Amino acid sequence: MQQTRFSPLVRVHHGSMGDLIYAGSARYRFDDRALAHLKIAITQKLRLQECFLLSWTDPASTGSGRVSLWLSSAIPLEFRYATDKPPALNRNWLAALAMSAHGTRGMIVMTEEEAEQIIAASTPAEKHERMQETADRTVPSTTPRQQKRRS
Question: Core-most of 30, 71, 88, 125, by most CB within 10 Å?
């Protein structure tokens, strides 16, 4: 039987709750909007064959403590959403997740508000670099029709 653990984003629950299923057995509950951002940020790193930690602190309401998961393309991950409509993505949130992944604690699960504060505190050069990386990985620079026109 799988046990569901709640992420720190339960305390800032704004909508439906989905699950990050790690290695086919451990379930971690996240707000669907947060889970969508984590999926993009995690996938960006795994596509580059990068291994890293995903870390968060459990809130007191769920027993406190810290969680870190080792993420690798060899370990199955499943993202299960409670709703069928994908949420709008916040590039600042994606950029802050990517920035945090370069630290010793790995990618830190954070709220959208925390991500905005991190980006606001970044230097203009750091902001530009992270925003460009996020844009390059999440949005194609040209559509197939634009590519045909250029040829």
Answer: 30
Q: How many domains does the chain have?
A: 1
C-alpha to C-alpha distance for 149 and 30, rounded to whole angstroms? 42
- Residue by residue, pLDDT tens for the chain (151 residues) are 455 555 555 444 557 999 999 999 999 999 999 999 999 999 999 999 999 999 999 888 777 899 999 999 999 999 999 999 999 999 999 999 999 999 999 999 999 999 999 999 987 776 556 555 555 544 444 344 444 444 4
Q: Which domain holds residue 88?
A: 4-150
| 120 burial type by CB count under 10 A (0-12 exposed, 13-18 middle, 19+ buried) | exposed
With contact defined as beta carbons under 8 Å apart, do 15 and 34 qualify?
A: no
Report whether 15 contacts 38 (CB < 8 A): no
